[in-house]
Amino acid sequence: MDAISDFLKEHARGDLVPWEVQKDTASRFNTTVRQIEEAILSMDLLPARYARNRTMIDIARQRILFNSTVAVVGCGGLGGYVIEELSRLGVGTLRVIDSDVFEEHNLNRQALCTFSSLGTAKVDAARDRVRAINPACEIVTLEARLDANNAAALLADASVAVDALDNIPSRLDLADACIGRKIPLVHGAIGGWYGTVLTQGRAENTIRQLYGDVKSSKGIEESLGAPPFTPAAIASMEAAEVCKLLTSDGSTLEGRMIFIDLFEMSIATFRV
Predict the structure, then answer these.
(1) Cα–Cα distance between 177 and 141 in angstroms, integer?
(2) Containing H/E element for 94?
(3) pLDDT over 70, % of the chain
(4) CB 16 within 8 A of CB 51
(5) Which site from 130, 138, 152, 248 is most exposed, i.e. has the minimal number of CB atoms within 10 Å?
(6) What is the DSSP string of 98-132?
(7) Does 221 have pLDDT greater than 70?
(8) Strands 46-47 and 256-261
(9) Which residues contact 231 (CB under 8 A, 6 or more apart)?
């Protein structure tokens, strides 16, 4: 390890380690870029691709992100953008959970969907995208439909879970499992021009309070539609919540729900 540290110090540019150096170090010392990233952060250096993070996320917090595991449940409209942003942010491990394959109607809004991916598993597209963005991020793909029987197991080792689902029964099963495992849950929902975001704390039943009396299996997306910009906006807020929860920075949406109206460009906050 001393040899790796010496090599990284010698080739760092200030406290930044360029990607080419990270790759070269992994090759020279017959290890992985993930292990080299861990070494870089442990030395209070920073992979250069995170240089624009540093004014708001210092090296200590970047190290926390690297050592964290986030479960993203759903790899569609919301989930695709969440996965993209968390991998770029530097979250070290992503557990992505979805049982679906891409269909043509997903092309208008789902970041991971392309013509070449039609008919393929969404989790496979997520894996390929993360590896292309951040090879130091470990991605665990679980091609499964979350329900009451498997939810707790699917969330294993997660520091935070993200609700990127499109149906209410699965949201409730996920929320219950998060309470059981004492995992904070970042919830997002969209429909048409509108979206909501909130965070369920470790011991709260916020999602059941919100949806408990709803009989329909689908959310308002089924009737209002889903343009490309609404999931992108809501997913970005979910990713920001995850960052704050992991680094213990800023104000989270525990006990509050944000309602966004992109048609009128208005935001309202409600106590929940």
Answers:
(1) 19
(2) strand 93-97
(3) 96
(4) yes
(5) 248
(6) ---BB-GGGGGT-TT--GGGBTSBHHHHHHHHHHH
(7) no
(8) unpaired
(9) 77, 78, 80, 81, 109, 110, 190, 195
Distance between CA atoms of 264 and 193, rounded to whole angstroms? Answer: 9
* pLDDT tens digits, one per residue of 228-246: 999 999 999 999 999 999 9
In degrees and rounded to multiples of 5, residue 56 shows phi and psi of: -120, -20
The maximal CA–CA distance of the chain, rounded, in angstroms, is 62
Neighbours of 210 (CB within 10 A): 20
Q: How far apart are CA 212 and CA 210, in angstroms?
A: 6
- In this structure, are residues 113 and 78 in contact, taking their beta carbons and an 8 Å threshold? no
Q: Torsion angle of alpha carbons 19, 113, 158, 53, nearest 10°?
A: 40
Structure tokens at 179: 């309470």
pLDDT digits (tens, 9 = 90+) for 112-167: 999 999 999 999 999 999 999 999 999 999 999 999 999 999 999 999 999 999 99
Pick the CATH number of 63-271 from 3.40.50.720, 3.40.640.10, 3.40.50.980, 3.40.50.2000: 3.40.50.720
* Domain spans, the chain: 2-51, 63-271
Q: Are 57 and 65 in contact (CB under 8 A)?
A: yes
DSSP lists the bridge partners of residue 70 as 94, 160
Sign of the torsion formed by the C-alpha atoms of 26, 29, 31 and 36: negative
Tens digit of pLDDT for each residue in 19-39? 999 999 999 999 999 999 999
